[in-house]
Design a protein that fits this description.
Layout lengths: L1 H54 L7 H69 L23
């Protein structure tokens, strides 16, 4: 009973930990896709800025246009790195949760084993109290061990 319950709790915790690990990997992958999307948007904005500048008579070498395009590139890079950081942070938290689940599962299994052993020992103690020293069931065990009359001489 207690041993099986502890094992079942450990198996459930191990399964949940494995799911958290898998979710952590998916969070990293999703953040990489989001980062690539940020880079793509940044390239599109840079291209649009250059096209608008050219349509208005400015050129790519104009300092204002160059500064705008450079700022768009920096912003896109920042957002891409931020997406990756957020995914990595989420994955780290999930991995820590997985580690905690594994530890709690192992503790539950250990506690189940201790409870099972405790039950066995209680049963043995009860049997000992009941049938020790050739006494009838329900008799008490001697408590004065200074008196040598309680054991059989051989």
């Amino acid at each position: 009973g207690a041993r099986q319950a502890g094992q079942a709790a450990n198996q459930a915790a191990q399964f949940e930990a494995a799911q958290l690990e898998q979710n952590a990997g998916q969070a990293v992958a999703a953040s990489q896709r989001a980062a690539e999307e940020q880079r793509r948007k940044s390239r599109l904005l840079q291209s649009r800025a250059l096209a608008v500048a050219a349509a208005s008579g400015g050129g790519a070498t104009d300092p204002t246009v160059s500064n705008i395009i450079s700022d768009l590139e920096k912003e896109g890079s920042f957002r891409a790195m931020l997406s990756i950081y957020e995914g990595e942070d989420q994955a780290r938290q999930m991995r820590l949760q997985a580690q905690g689940r594994r530890m709690s599962g192992e503790a539950a299994e250990y506690a189940g084993n201790i409870n099972a052993l405790s039950t066995v020992l209680k049963g043995g103690s009860s049997m000992f109290q009941r049938y020790a020293f050739g006494q009838t069931p329900g008799a008490t065990i001697p408590t004065d061990f200074n008196d040598d009359s309680w054991y059989l001489d051989t």
